Amino acid sequence: MRKRLFTTVITCAFLFGLLGGGSVNAMELMTNTDAVAVDDDFTSETGNYIEGNTDEVFEDELNVYANYATISSDEAYEKMIAMEAEYPTGTTWTNGNSYKWNCGWAASGCMGFAHMISDAAFGNAGFRAVYDDGTGAMIDNIRVGDVLRLENNNHSVIVLQIYEDFVVVAEGNVGGGTVRWGRVISKEDMKEQCQTYYAQTGEKLYLETRYAEDTVTMTCAPVDGNWMWENSYERSIFVYEDWEADICFSATVTPANSEATIKWVSSNPSAVEIADDGTLTVIGHGKSVITATYVEKGITSSFEVNVILPYSTPTGIFFLKNDYTGYQAGITTTEVSPKSKVEYSWYAVREYEENEECISDWEYGNEWLDWVPEKYGNYTLIGRTRVDGNDETIEEVKTDISYSPHIKGKCQMPYTGEGGGFLIGFETYNNPGQKYRYEVLILDCTLLAQGKDAWIYTTTQCGVADGNAFWTIWQPEYGYYWTLFRLFDENGNLIDEQCYGFQNI
Question: Is the bond preceding 255 in cis, omega lying within 30 degrees of 0?
Fold first, then answer.
């Protein structure tokens, strides 16, 4: 019945409410002189203790160690309006009346009355102070049961009902020191009070609320529930274009509000679309920010969704072994796919040859190469990756190597003996049975440039009676030359060669 009565008296009470004042002898900011000290037995364990002494209560942003109210606005209203029977309109309530509320201090007058009605609704729930920003924006976020500090910071009222353009309040110490239920105050008037007070004093009006701060929390999970992304610090997820599971976002509003409207938006619909129920649909490659908006409060929460084609990009080849005995190497990658889904393969192309030699075909999870080339020479070594057999994901990295399995070193130096010239020679790692055959050839670069026969010197194939080094002396004319060192096995097969340029100018 009281709800219906308030509805019928709103029109006639409106003008009376705006003209009725309510600031007579009202309590100023809480100080040690007009507030009862916080009891020693109020601790953080009770959920109601306020840090700082009472001088600081409304001068700082308060951190209240509290469990905030979880009741609905309708429940809060019913509990508050039940107090009207005990303190009906016209009941005496002046600065001589005080009340110590459950949040830790006592207050007299209008604030004491508002705190008493607040406790009736919220019991031992804690509170937090919310200061306006000087624009009146605070008024758009008031809730049933909030205590508003108005009229140049001289009067407190408690909100009973909230409508589109106005609120209905209860208050004490008005009209000469009485209680009043049902005054109507327009939201526009309250916003103007916030703005005027801030403009004149530089200080901000505030409200005391027993509710937790409005939040909206996003979570994301596939329909089958095998994994979940919560509000992690990076607030970003990867989704593969070929992902088969449906992905659903959900949003939780705090305090709980079953009537809260959540609006979902994708910043890049060409990458992902999101339905009204939070179901995500992958459209194509790209990034999108998914935002959930708590429409009634304008609060948002966002996740970045990065839609990618699964890949594992090779970034380089590093060698554990790189010498005449062969190669041991691995591929370094920037993985986006799990390693168990990445395949590796190795190929090589010998200089002057066109066809790739497959060293190791596609293999899951094994980026390692252990290879001894069958032939000497210069090669381009190629490492490739792909994801789960998908050739569209193939990427590669290359490096050049020179394989010389037998020639250990070579030497070209001026010869200071009789006749002068150059001492030229090369050494092999071994010479099994003294059966290797050594050869040194000289190429004249000048003749080569003229298109003439440029091979001007050869030792032919020679064996050595002892050791594994071969030497020759050559007297060149002035010019530019290349020396070719060649090694043959006992059957005359060329098994290694290296060249070296020098000049005699």
Answer: yes
